[in-house]
Design a protein that fits this description.
Radius of gyration: 14 Å
Number of helices: 0
Largest sheet: 5 strands, parallel
CATH class: Alpha Beta
Structural class: mainly beta
Shape: globular
Number of strands: 11
Helix content: under 10%
CATH architecture: Alpha-Beta Horseshoe
Number of domains: 1
CATH topology: Leucine-rich repeat, LRR (right-handed beta-alpha superhelix)
Strand order of the largest sheet: 2-4-6-8-10
Distance between the termini: 41 Å
Strand content: 25-35%
């Protein structure tokens, strides 16, 4: 693929309901994160770093209660981070940096060990 070729994540991603790790970093993915990802109940690791994802983070993403690693850095994500992120009780690594239009207040996340929020307007409780 070249930088001119982009791929979109569609609702079809939900058919992989036994997926535990999804690493799609630097894959020229554009568009939004489909809310159907919430159906990936066994997902522990989601890496969408370095793509061309736009829009906001869908609140449905925070329904994946077992998610431990979430990397959304270096995209074009905008909007406010939902307080629903607090539902991710097992989250220990969160990378959101370099999404300059991303803002909001992160609630306390008990298991969070690594937080990357460079070049965002996000703050922490």
């Amino acid at each position: 693929m070249t930088a001119n070729d982009t791929v979109k994540l569609g609702p079809e991603i939900s058919v992989f309901h036994n997926l535990v790790k999804l690493d799609l970093r630097d894959n020229f993915i554009s568009g939004s994160i489909p809310s159907e990802m919430s159906k990936l109940r066994l997902l522990r690791y989601l890496n969408l770093y370095g793509n061309e994802i736009t829009s906001t983070i869908p609140p449905a993403l925070f329904e994946i209660e077992g998610l431990e690693v979430l990397s959304l850095a270096r995209n074009d994500i905008s909007g406010t981070i939902s307080s629903l992120i607090g539902l991710l009780g097992r989250l220990n690594s969160l990378h959101m940096g370099y999404n300059t239009l991303l803002s909001g207040t992160l609630p306390e996340l008990d298991n969070l060990v690594l937080l990357g929020k460079n070049k965002t307007k996000a703050t922490c409780v």
